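Chapter summary example.
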Amino acid sequence: MGSSRSAEATRSCRHRRPKTCWFYVPDAQAWQARCDATRSAGFVEVPSFNPYWNQSGRTFEDPDGYRVVIQCAAWGAPNPA
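The structure predicted for these 81 residues follows.
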């Protein structure tokens, strides 16, 4: 309760397993800390399949091909375009 963070996940139709997980972190300092920690954990920053996620977020991939998007926005925030 009271958390300003949200998450969602999708499945790849081709592989029928979770492939991408999104985290919404509205605070810029907390967002940067999450990105730094994700890199430190061995994830590699990659371009997102959807350019929307590159506008105010970063996409990371692990060696197995699973992706994490860390979005610097609140869940349901309008498009930053």
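To summarize the output: The domain at 6-71 is CATH 3.10.180.10 (2,3-Dihydroxybiphenyl 1,2-Dioxygenase; domain 1).
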